[in-house]
Amino acid sequence: MTKEQMRECIDECLKCMEVCNNCYDACLQEEDVAMMRDCIRLDRMCADMCEFAARAMTQNSPYAAQICALCAQICEDCGNECAKHDMEHCQRCAEQCKRCAEVCRKMAA
Amino acid sequence: MTKEQMRECIDECLKCMEVCNNCYDACLQEEDVAMMRDCIRLDRMCADMCEFAARAMTQNSPYAAQICALCAQICEDCGNECAKHDMEHCQRCAEQCKRCAEVCRKMAA
Amino acid sequence: MTKEQMRECIDECLKCMEVCNNCYDACLQEEDVAMMRDCIRLDRMCADMCEFAARAMTQNSPYAAQICALCAQICEDCGNECAKHDMEHCQRCAEQCKRCAEVCRKMAA
Amino acid sequence: MTKEQMRECIDECLKCMEVCNNCYDACLQEEDVAMMRDCIRLDRMCADMCEFAARAMTQNSPYAAQICALCAQICEDCGNECAKHDMEHCQRCAEQCKRCAEVCRKMAA
């Protein structure tokens, strides 16, 4: 893994943390909040996981690759859930989660 | 507080988290690690506080201002400690901490 | 602040983190989830704040008192919101939040 | 996995978070802090990982088993490092890490 890959992975994780927390906030304001249950849960889980991955990478943790492997899976699942909903916040979250999952998978390899 | 101020504050907190964790890692590799005790502690504390502030702001927390007030103080203290050391990682951390403290103070106001 | 007070405060914060996350999970499963919006948000915020306070206290942070002051306020607010709902998970959360708020206030003094 | 296993795993993770952060604090106060570099790093990493695992379990996360698998490995490594040092804080941390690793492995299975 190169310095550039690490750099990109930290940036995508922090971006994903932000977009997931934005989506979490927006989902809780939706009129049909019952439809967003899974999205709310996954948004929190994914935001927290991305934050944790960024913390590990920035402190040069020897566990960064394994943490990113798990992060990739949670991002994938969160992205798939968000992709089911038409709202702009969900679509934006789905895109960022997929991008982050891809970069995390490379870090994990 | 405007959207631009919030945007800037999230960015500075995430940058500060990263730079503090980098400094923490570098301090632990210094030959004279005994001299870096306070820096190591404050780097971790400041990185964690900035991360927590970013988490609160991105989820639109009503406590963001109060969290940023506390973050400003910890950034200030961490910046002052880092400023005492000549190493590039400490100087860079001192600068980022001061910038973050300033922006957090505005958020808190 | 004595060692016993610190011990009690760590225990109450960790208990509160757990009970708030349990309530968050249970609220997201309620049929009338729309009624639980504020509770879900405050449960997450309070669980995260209590976790952060416990992290600070266990690492002997000089900011423990200030962090506990903020924690006390968030526990108070979360407890008041939970107290409005009759469900067992909310009532249990309201009680724990109030107990934690009280102990945190003493730590902060 | 039974409710009792989950209960035990949350308790061991929270205990381990506390003991690792105590050890981190004590290591930073050791006269020969250079000898404790790896211990300091692993203490922080392990404390943060255990905290994250407890957060996931208490919110009933579907990723709890995978998070605990990773937690078990970090606890194992932290316990092995701490076991090399005679200080009481390290010996206590080594014991708790081994206990937590074992319980996390069962959760992960």
Can you walk through the features of this model?
- 4 copies of one chain form a homotetramer.
- Chain A is an all-alpha fold.
- Chain A has one domain (3-108): Substrate Binding Domain Of Dnak, Chain:A, Domain 2, CATH 1.20.1270.
- Chain A has 4 helices and no strands.
- Chain A has helices spanning 3-28, 37-58, 64-83, 88-108.
- In chain A, helix 1 packs antiparallel against helix 2 (37-58) and helix 3 packs antiparallel against helix 4 (88-108).
- Chain A is elongated, with a radius of gyration of 13 Å.
- The termini of chain A are close together.
- The mean pLDDT of chain A is 97.
- Chains in contact: A-B, A-C, A-D, B-C, B-D, C-D.
- The interface between A and D is medium-sized, with 16 and 16 residues.
- Chains A, B, C, D: Pfam families: Csp.
- Chains A, B, C, D: This is Cysteine-rich protein YhjQ.
- Chains A, B, C, D: It comes from Saccharibacillus kuerlensis.
Series of secondary-structure elements of chain A, N-terminal to C-terminal: HHHH
What is the number of beta strands of chain A? 0
Radius of gyration of chain A: 13 Å
**What is the overall shape of chain A?**
elongated
- Per DSSP, what share of the residues of chain A sits in E-state strands of 2 or more residues? under 5%
Average pLDDT of chain A, to the nearest integer?
97
**Approximately how much helix is present in the residues of chain A?**
over 70%
Which CATH-level-2 architecture of chain A?
Answer: Up-down Bundle
- Count of discrete alpha- or pi-helical segments spanning 4 or more residues of chain A: 4
Low-confidence stretches of chain A: none
